[in-house]
């Protein structure tokens, strides 16, 4: 069986410990799970909307994916990721973005496009993904990816210019396979639809007048994350850039495969490198407090994390069928 990797797996390999915990041991924490599940729910809703479904139907799908879990864990997750907050923002985003005003032409069959792209000549290492959609923009096909985040600012948006997922998904659109058949889409760039899932301002106890909108803060709260959201790109990807990406992705995938196979059990956690601390990654890592600051002890890892299998190839293969 091939070793499957997706972009999340390769990005996480900035630290061996973090990558092994998430993808070898399938561990995570509740707050990280909320971020991922809210994003997954938003993707499901947007896919339905981009295929032509009503806003009400799309938002119903969002609730199916996220509501029960979010309400059950409400006390443990950030306010911005609570169900009511995320639901209100996404509903308003769809309302504010009718399909004929997006600036792209959508082909329903090219919404949620799965692919498998072998990285080596034997097909032993396979990069997989599901492109949110491949619309026509600026006269040609482009990869369009939806991203949710707590704050859309210049620091956050700069990452997409050279981001690995953009390269990987353009590569997948051009050279990937679906049910053994080549996609062969003439794609040379990609775009990011950035939706800000920040906490909606409510004005607090004083409810002052909003300087931007001229009304009480409680009346315009949801407008702030919507106005901060934006569509980014297009970001070009040349053939040379794609082949360089493929070589780098293969190198990382082989290293990750080796770690997962050679360190199969939590009891061996202490033998793994923690390179993330040399690059300032720990401040962003969900495992810093429950794992690394407790000495990487197997019993503490088991007690402080939850099991959530990372098996993206299953979703990709289900879509192919």
How would you sum up this structure, described in words?
- The protein has 321 residues and is of the alpha+beta class.
- It has one domain (3-320).
- It is 41% helix and 17% strand.
- The chain has helices at 7-11, 16-24, 30-50, 55-72, 83-96, 154-157, 164-175, 217-220, 223-228, 239-262, 298-304, 312-320, and strands at residues 3-5, 27-28, 111-118, 125-133, 136-137, 140-141, 143-149, 177-178, 181-182, 189-196, 230-236, 306-307.
- The strands form 5 sheets. Strands 1-4-3 form a 3-stranded mixed beta sheet, with helices on both faces.
- A hairpin with a 2-residue loop joins β8 (177-178) and β9 (181-182).
Low-confidence stretches: none
Distance between the termini: 18 Å
Number of strands: 12
Biggest β-sheet description: 3 strands, mixed
Shape: globular
How many individual helices?
A: 12
Order of helical and strand elements:
EHHEHHHEEEEEHHEEEHHEHHEH
Amount of helix: 40-55%
Report strand order across the widest sheet: 1-4-3
- Could you tell me the mean pLDDT? 94
Beta content comes to: 15-25%
| Tally of distinct domains | 1
Indicate the radius of gyration in whole angstroms. 21 Å
Q: Briefly note the structural class of the backbone.
A: alpha+beta
